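ERR on first pass: missing label on line 2. Operator R.T. fixed the label and resubmitted. Corrected input:
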Amino acid sequence: MAETLEAVKDRISEQYLGKAGIHAVGIRRSANSITVYIQPTNDSTQQDTLESLRRDASPYGVVTRDAVPAKFA
Amino acid sequence: MATGSLQNEPPVTRERLAQAKDVLSRELLSARFPAAAHLPMLHAIRQVSLMSMTCPPELMEQETLRVHAVLRDAPPLVHAVGVGRKISGGQRTATPAVRIYVTHKVEARRLAASEKIPEMVNGVPTDVIVAPPALFLQQSSSTCTQNRTSSIRPLIGGISTSHTAGDTGTIGYFCTSTDPNDSASDVFVLSNCHIYGNWEAAQIGDDLLQPGAGDGGNRAGRIAGFQREVTLLFGGAQNEVDAAIGKLDGGIGYKAEICSIGRVSGTAQAAEDDEVAKHGRTTGYTEGVVDDELIDFIMLPNNSNSYIQFRNQMRIIPRSPDYTAIAKEGDSGSLVVKKNEHEATGLLHSAAIDGSYAYASHIDKVLSQLRIALL
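pass 2 clean. output:
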């Protein structure tokens, strides 16, 4: 039985949150995809990390968005 | 013709005028239109009244147009009947008349026979005048949004608050406790743990202020004593909520409403693309869209060298083009509600510094982990 979108999000979050500028991992049900929020960095490994993440999220798609991390409001 | 009839009628005495007015008042105000028919119009007018203090002009214009649309489609609404000189061509004439005040005029061909106002009543001419209905004068939500960083009594959700030694945020709402150790009659005020918890240093009974310390609040503005929090865990631990409550002091009045929003009508689970609203200490009333309903994130708080991680939060973005920021520093603790239904969906606690998005804890988790029920 295929993993649900929520389960894949949990797994991706546990594995990648905090790495290579990734500060948030969510879902987009309407696109049946994982959403990854990234603080752009000069880290050359960021693209490699995202490629790895995409493979791990399969068969779900991954949408990446640039965003500054949040602060307590 | 009305004027022809008038010429054949005896002179209009004060008594006849009053009788004619009473006839029309009974017919038009008491029996003709059910009270419910007024609600769409009054709601629309109230919306404009609420927004007039907070909206940019272009949005205000949109709201005004919306009100016009409501009025155009509403049934002809008579809201007052009186007496006075008939007005013709914009000039007051010498002819006494019964004045019927309506919110708007409708072409005669669109009216049912029973809806048409007679030109004469008991030999007295009528005069239909378009005028807005009167509203009770009271402290409006516009006042609370203007004064949201000042002292406001009775308390209302959406205004400034803090622990004496904590960051300043927002009163989310009012609640009772579901913990059997608490008195069922006590009322609690809801905000975030990082607002009321003083970074895990808060003790039961600590002063909670309105306005918050960051807005000049001090012990004279004490409203509640700290009661409990869902402790925030730093490092790798996962948090689901950022929430705390204080017990309102005796004699502190409150209204179970949110400034510019009104009373909360229960709770609901937020879903992707839901339209939501909040009122906070810094940005006031804003509307947004749930962009992500189950997001995990990490952040580094300003006063900490340790990361904090949240799990299964909702991410909210401003509803464009009317809003460019959903929340900013000081809006923490704002209750997030569904925009139209006013059902509580979340408790806002974090945001991008430019307000381009915010995070909120799901309300069901807040209620269960804090052991409370919203009033």
